[in-house]
Design goal:
Strand content: under 5%
Structural class: mainly alpha
Strand order of the largest sheet: 1-2
Distance between the termini: 65 Å
Low-confidence stretches: none
Radius of gyration: 23 Å
Largest sheet: 2 strands, antiparallel
Helix content: 55-70%
Order of helices and strands: HHHHHHHHHEEHH
Amino acid sequence: MSLLIYPTECKEYFEREFSQRKLRSSSYSKRAFARDLNLAPSTLIEFFKGRPSISKDRVKELGIKIKLDSHNLEHLLDLYLIAFSKTSTEVNLAKSRIELRKNTKSSENKIERFKLASEPIYWIYLELLTINPKIQNIDFAAKALGVSSLKLKKINRKLIDLGFLILDDKGQIKPTDKFRFFGDERQNFEMRKFHKNILKSAISSVDKNNPDERFLSSVIFSFPKSKFKELVGKLENANYELLTKYSELKNPDSVYCFSFQIFNSVGVKKNAK
């Protein structure tokens, strides 16, 4: 297994592996997972609770068993040391290695996220999972989103690897909180593609959506270029606060997209006198 994002707890490797197996077979249980790992079910449950029920050497064997690559296996063992080692030197060295590893991989992770999700439909799917129980059914979800069931299954597996989705004990797919807001990644082609697709959706909504389901507003104005970053920052903060307030209201029943743009419309400077 080669994960695109390094976990923050050693148990996450096995939770993700269990989620992948549960996704392939809805009847797959933690008892079956424990059996496949040659563990007692109670030992696995304790480990999932973050308790030191397994030795470091045994954890390494389990990491190999679920086919972690060398980098992730090293990361797994470092996370184990941070959680359970009683030696401060071991803990500090493990933290240093993890920090170096995460910094090295961070830009790659960002690109991989948006290679997967340059199409807004994936994020709409994540949001739908929070409000519509029927979306748990792959065929129903695929039809609602206009994709094949096979494609949606592949998306689910990738989203689990990326940490955007998890499977609970009942086999229900649940989004994590690692989505919804996207800023301006200037050097990222996939991020630019994402925003272009959002703008295309906004344009099509003019004809497809009823006026009571959409709102479009534009204004042309001038101001000092030196104040651009200040203005964008204030707009982002205000938008985030307002959208967070409304997204936390009870009984949501629709998925909306909010997008704002501010850009130099002509690129012509005022003529000097």
